Amino acid sequence: ENRPILGLPGVSIRKDDGTIHVDERVPCVNDLNMLPFPDRRMVNYKKHECILGSGGLTTTILSSRGCPFNCRYCFVNIRKYRLRKLENIMEEIRQCISLGIQEFFFVDDLFNITKKRVIDFSKMLLDSQVKIRWSFRGRVDQIDENVLEISSRAGCSRIHYGVESGVPSLLQRIGKETDLAMVRRAIRLTRDFGIEVSSNVMIGLPGETPDQTEQTIKFVLDLPTDYLQAEVFTPYPKTPLYEDGLKTGLYKKDYWREFALH
User: Fold this and answer.
1) Cα torsion angle, 63, 124, 196, 37, sign
2) Vertex 134: Cα angle to 133 and 135 (nearest 5)
């Protein structure tokens, strides 16, 4: 619109005199239903498939923003959890179907905020007779037989669980608020209903010993999981675990700040 950049909310620039203008007015979008759908035709979407999927056209989709939990490793710094209306999500799904896309991966930081959320979405799919395959990232403490039975009938093909560690004391240290019994039960039930499981773990959490690393490896290998995603723990900036490392001298300098500046 040929408007000056200076003064746009959330945009920081170097001014003509060399000084830096930082605009911290980044508005939080409360009503996600007001946002337009991403125009997938702007990329060659027909090349997008999921290595874990059925082999057909796949897209990612977002039904919420934010996360109300306080995992100490997580870089999601917006706790205000906002949901799109189910009708709004269905409208985007139908738009994708018109493009030939039949498989969807919900990449919300937390899709199953409640059991009811998943059940209501599944009911809407069944009532509308929309035939798709879908998967999501979720917590093990919001899973039960009712959720899995109806979501399986509605086309849910895979759930990605954040297992994180097989050591109870480490789960407490990182603020996960789950336990190993929850993990075992959720994964066993998920498999019982014919839904694939991807288990995600982190290796090298703060204070983790070699024996505890082996304990995590043994724990996840004993799970009836279809896929395992293991990552080396990385302290992200502004997270509680990163700030702990700065205070205790674990790192000699704020390396994320150094990275950003250079």
Assistant:
1) negative
2) 140
Read off the pLDDT of residues 3-56 as tens digits, 9 standing for 90 and up.
Answer: 888 888 889 999 999 999 999 887 788 999 999 999 999 999 998 888 887 778
3-state secondary structure of 33: helix
And the tokens for 232? 């080396």
Residues 6+ apart with CB under 8 A from 9: 23, 25, 26, 27
| SS3 category, 250 | coil
Q: Provide the pairing of β-strand 58-61 with 103-106.
A: parallel
Give 25's Cβ-side CA count (13 Å radius). 6
- Rounded CA separation 229/227 (Å): 7
3-state secondary structure of 86: helix
DSSP per residue, 121-180: HHHHHHHHT---EEEEEE-GGG--HHHHHHHHHTTEEEEEEEEE-S-HHHHHHTT----H
Residue 207 makes CB contacts below 8 A (sequence gap 6+) with 170, 173
The whole-angstrom separation of Cα 134 and Cα 245 is 38
Q: Look up the pTM and report it.
A: 0.89
